[in-house]
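Worked example 2:
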Amino acid sequence: MTAPLTTALTAERQSAPTGPSFAAALCGFLSTTVATTALMFLLSSV
């Protein structure tokens, strides 16, 4: 079961050499946006 996943990850790394850093930046941006939105909702409900 791990063979197709490994093959897909290898193909993705070859096609996008800057993939992991971009994915990390996107994940950080999205999590910061969600956290800020949640904080605004919490502050407005008080």
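The mean pLDDT is 76. Residues 34 and 40 are 10 Å apart (CA to CA).
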